[in-house]
Amino acid sequence: MSGTKRRIVVTAALPYANGDIHIGHLVEYLQTDFWVRFQKMRGHACLYICADDTHGTPVMIRARSEGIAPEELIARSHAQHVKDFADFQIAFDSYYSTNAPENRAFCYEIFAAMEKSGAITTQRLPQLYCEKDAMFLPDRFVKGVCPKCGAAGQYGDACDVCGQTYAAEELKDARCVTCGEPPVMRESEHLFFELEPFRDFLQAWIPKHTAPDVANKLLEWFSEPLRGWCISRDAPYFGFEIPGRPGKFFYVWVDAPIGYMASLKKWCDGRGQNFDDWWTNPEAELYHFIGKDIVRFHCLFWPAMLHVAGVKPPDQVFVHGFLTVNGEKMSKSKGTFVKARTYLDHLNPQDLRFYYACKLNGTTDDLDLNLEDFVNRVNSDLVGKITNLASRGAQMLHKRLGGRMGVMDAEGRALWEAARDRAETVAGHYESRDFSKVMVEVRALADAANQYFDTKAPWALVKTDAEAARQVMTSVLNIFRVLAIYLQPILPVYAERVARLFNEAEYCWADAMKAIEDADINPYEYLATRVEMAKVEEMVEAGKL
């Protein structure tokens, strides 16, 4: 695939504007970043597209509680998200907002096609209504006693205590969150997008565009007629009003995935590019990275919406699992529900990038961040095995031999060739998103280089045969350089510093084929340092606040 230049659009799920980025979110944004950076290194035209998901009731409620407009809240959230992502070295080509004119235009266009197809129906639904505030109450405008476990103070969609979901009207002792009065039941007319007409399309599409385990789970829905999807919400609602339906708004999950298209359109318009060349072009590729909790939206509703609008659906939906910390669900009380900013206040972002890469394997399996293993893995592998090659080799070369590389000896050249010859194997692991196998390859090559370095003992050899020692260090540094190229999608800032060490520009994948000999190198600069467990413990304590 590397011989032909590909045109690829890659999306990650849109983070919600009513919350901070946390280390669970980063499982997705980092693996997507690894994959996109790899594709760019291979010379492909690859775009990383995302946006803030800004609409819905929670944003409206929070803005109201703070006494600000929703637009002010989402602008503040957007700035925080952008900074968190940038500080984790995540490089979006377009990071936009769903509350944008491009998104509104696409929503209207797709809804018009849905309506024209006859797939939009109406139903009258019983809903809670606050007579004092004269409004229908969305789920999050109601609080009461959980009908499942009896916990008080629960919202009208799900219980934070037992995790059960339910309809708002099932709440016991329900109260309006704005005035505290008990609501009454009234009927309201809502719009539904009927999926049953797309049964054949979806049944054929799902197995071809999702992993087998994901497809099998989705196809369980097809044992009975597919239910219609309610796509409207009553005012007040922060979102786009539905054309021709005063007081009715698109449910947030309608315009959220359309936000991928809007973010891409924004990028295209800013660069004189044609949107159709990237999205609807049959030669272009489109991939979604998502968590397994939002599969139904991305693999049932979304492809049906695109299909009815005559727009190309994704080529593949890559689904990943959740993050656990120390084998358990992230917990605020234990300090393991760690915000991205809390992590950044205490630890180096490249260490988490490295650790997630060691664990990610392209499946829907959950990923566990074991904090003790995190410390040990970074210290042992990134610092002790990989970086050790550069720090010892480059510093010794500068201290004893004027900072100039010579030529590799026969044994060193054979090790370098073995490392270089793994390029396509490593590339295959990147392509299949099996980043853990990339790390296995790199560690094995680093082990071999360290063994060679220790056997040759250049620190002793330099006293009796300076040129032989120079050959050893030249060999080790060339092997290390190949490893840094293989790690660049995972550790971009690290690789950038390695390129500076060797007086080179940013690496492309083909640079692994080249050796650096008879050349001066720059003084060694910091690449990675050991993680202190005390710092991890400080982060966990800060997470409890």
Structure characterization notes:
This protein has helices spanning 23-41, 57-66, 70-87, 101-116, 199-209, 212-219, 252-270, 275-278, 295-308, 340-346, 349-359, 371-401, 410-420, 423-431, 435-456, 458-464, 466-487, 492-501, 533-543; strands at residues 7-12, 45-52, 94-97, 120-130, 135-136, 142-145, 154-155, 172-176, 184-193, 229-230, 232-234, 248-250, 285-291, 316-320, 323-325, 328-329, 367-369. By secondary structure, it is an alpha/beta fold. The strands form five sheets. It has a five-stranded parallel beta sheet, sandwiched between helices. A four-stranded antiparallel beta sheet has the order 5-4-9-10. Strand 15 and strand 16 form a beta hairpin. Helix 4 crosses helix 7 (252-270), helix 14 runs antiparallel to helix 15 and helix 16 runs antiparallel to helix 17 (466-487). The longest helix has 31 residues, at 371-401. The protein is elongated, with a radius of gyration of 27 Å. It starts with 6 loop residues before the first strand and ends with a helix. The mean pLDDT is 96.
Distinctive features:
alpha/beta; 5-stranded parallel β-sheet; 4-stranded antiparallel β-sheet; 19 helices
> Largest sheet, order of strands side by side?
3-2-1-13-14
Percent in strands:
5-15%
Strand segment tally: 17
Uncertain regions spanning at least 5 consecutive residues: none
What is the residue-mean pLDDT, rounded to a whole number?
A: 96
Helix content: 40-55%
- Rg: 27 Å
Oligomer status: single chain
Shape: elongated
**Discrete helix count:** 19
The assigned structural class equals alpha/beta
**Strand count, sense and closure of the main sheet?**
5 strands, parallel
What's the end-to-end separation, in Å?
A: 49 Å
